[in-house]
From TrEMBL:
<comment type="similarity">
    <text>Belongs to the beta-eliminating lyase family.</text>
</comment>
<feature type="domain" description="Aromatic amino acid beta-eliminating lyase/threonine aldolase">
    <location>
        <begin position="42"/>
        <end position="410"/>
    </location>
</feature>
<protein>
    <submittedName>
        <fullName>Tryptophanase</fullName>
    </submittedName>
</protein>
<keyword id="KW-0663">Pyridoxal phosphate</keyword>
<dbReference type="InterPro" id="IPR015422">
    <property type="entry name" value="PyrdxlP-dep_Trfase_small"/>
</dbReference>
<dbReference type="InterPro" id="IPR015424">
    <property type="entry name" value="PyrdxlP-dep_Trfase"/>
</dbReference>
<dbReference type="InterPro" id="IPR001597">
    <property type="entry name" value="ArAA_b-elim_lyase/Thr_aldolase"/>
</dbReference>
<dbReference type="InterPro" id="IPR011166">
    <property type="entry name" value="Beta-eliminating_lyase"/>
</dbReference>
<dbReference type="GO" id="GO:0016829">
    <property type="term" value="F:lyase activity"/>
</dbReference>
<keyword id="KW-0456">Lyase</keyword>
<dbReference type="InterPro" id="IPR015421">
    <property type="entry name" value="PyrdxlP-dep_Trfase_major"/>
</dbReference>
<dbReference type="Pfam" id="PF01212">
    <property type="entry name" value="Beta_elim_lyase"/>
</dbReference>
Amino acid sequence: MRSYATRMATPADLPDREERAAALEAAGYNLFDLDADRVFVDLLTDSGTGTMSDAQWAALHRGDESYAGSSSFRRLREAVDDVMGFDRVVPAHQGRGAENVLYGTLVAEGDRVLNNTHFDTTRAHVAANGGEAVDCPVPAARDPDADDPFKGNFDVEAGRARVEEVGAENVPVVVLTITNNSAAGQPVSVANTREVAAFADDIDATFVIDACRFAENAHFVAEREAEFADASAAEVAREQLGYADALVMSAKKDGLSNVGGFVAVDDGLDDLLERVKQRTILYEGFPTYGGLAGRDLEAMAVGLREAVEDDYLAHRVEQVATLGAELAAAGLPIYEPIGGHAVYVDAGAALDHISTAAFPGQALACELYLEGGVRTVELGSFAFPETKRPEYVRLAVPRRTYHREHFEHVGETATAVVERADELAGFEIVDEPPMRELRHFSADLRPLDA
Ligand SMILES: *Cc1c(COP(=O)(O)O)cnc(C)c1O
């Protein structure tokens, strides 16, 4: 059993109710616009918000800040090789930097990119290169109650049907996102990974794994896939990632770091590696630092090794499950099974008197802040205006950061909100940015009268 002792104390104070109400109003009822020190428990995202270990802090001090060929880069490359099985690594400042570099070399005007579900930055990079992002989730992914161990899987039949329609020559890339972030953080099986690899091979496409949460995924595989019942997460991770031609990674997730990312390319794909390096020079930095300081590379190298420790992963997944149990006990409908990094609440069901047009997810998210200083994020029709999605509110758990008392506070907050759910009213947008896809980051809203 693993727990973490905390030796750096960050005070968090709950502002009183009037202060919370004033902060919310000043933020235009958009939780991205809150000052973080007005937040008591911050579950906005698990990206870059975790706590580094003492070993990571120690490694930081040997950061080699050489412009080219630093020993810190070498240590990162060794870690990626040991943990993920790839020794051709090109760092980037974070995941979307790696996506820009990789998809910019692989995707051209008119191409289709197939993915179990595109994460929002992935979708944006496909579109920015003139491509069309096609999601192929298994049907169970859309059912918040379906009892399926691998609801993150790629629907290969749907993928093949799409290729029939558009022609294999127009599908240069197939992506598998593990865990499937946009499908409630659900895992992908190794069996499915093999099928997707074979499918990509059949159509001569480059098979990319978006590995942001590869370690959490490996933990679920070891728990749920019979073939891996005796395997460690580290063994599963190497097996699963080994099918990919290339990896794209955000170290802000399972790199246990506050910043960073990389592209990794399989042996033999020399041309792809060369193009990735050239594009990295253009957008990120020299290919041995990719927009990061040497010390960031050190933190990533240590974090990656820690991320596949079974004791760490058991602790991590247990924390998310604890939060899920608190929310379910409070009477909120949650997506099950609970995924690896977050709990998703179906606000459309919890606040069924608020219409989609009045953003029930945003109403719930604002009320959780008003009631208990808890920050979450709406991922329903406010964040994704054109796509029909359930009205989810996501509560993401930063790694190695919060304790049981925080999850209990969230549970008490949720209970109080559920008790007066009938009184809650929806919202309308008063001001939004020109790019609709990005509106939830900066739009201002106004509460409607109850
Ligand atoms: C976070 C994330 C990204 C982008 O990474 P950033 O570090 O936030 O730029 C890409 N894909 C997935 C699945 C992610 O979760």
